[in-house]
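Bench notes, afternoon.
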Amino acid sequence: MSFWATKSVVVTGGAGFLGSFVVEKLAERGCRRIFVPRSKDYDLVQMEAVQHLYVDTRPEVVIHLAALVGGIGANLANPGKFFYDNLVMGAQLMEVGRQFGLEKFVGVGTVCAYPKFAPIPSREDDFWNGYPEETNAPYGMAKKMLLVQSRAYRQQYGFNSIVLFPVNLYGPRDNFDLASCHVIPALIRKFLDASASALHSGKPRVTVWGTGGATREFLYVEDAAEGVVLAAERYNKSLPVNLGAGFEISIRELVTLISKLTGFHGEVVWDTSKPDGQPRRMLDTSRAKAEFGFMARTSFEEGLRNTIEWYRRRTDS
């Protein structure tokens, strides 16, 4: 509580999915000066806007969560923009923070930065042993540069920055736009929409990309927010740190579970002409536990139930 009581904190992306929970965690800990820049006022891709942000807010801590993100389809459609925007936002926020004497910079990367064939569970020491999976490599490489910059700036300038690498997040307030969302919100929406339409058109049917053989690890968004805030309080090294939940589930198993929890009774069609993406994904989270005491608390089924219920309330209102 005392760490945050007097701090002025900027949370980029603080109105977004993960960011909104991070802002709530900060407020619960007694932080009274939290500034959330909006893109209409501060376009973080533009250096001048980043400079104005620092002048206007005079932060002591910056938690950088703003990112251009999406599922496999969005990454395939926008590789250049995903690379450039994410790279430039992080680089400029850290550089201007250094110039302004920022006390601490907290960058949040992505599991997509890991090599395509990293050992499972993937440890932070595996980070540089290969190129990311091709469908999301531009996004992953842009976020990987946060770590390069963090290490370089600590070495040359003594700049205190940390970079965290969470697995795929899910939970209430996620993006459910089928053109850009990730797999869990996409499946929840598809199953609920298909069940609703089947009332008028017969047996429901849902198409899912890939073979179902790829695996993923998922971290509930409130747990991820707690991890970010704990790291901001307690961690002060430029070694990367994984944030995860410690389990692996195949997409086929995920489809079965979400169909059960949403009450879907219909046909699932696998479109094997579409890519699976990363073959396997699961992180070793022992460093986060050792360095700042982070462990995920929410069971996967509980988190999915919360997410489905939130989406139902949102669509019913």
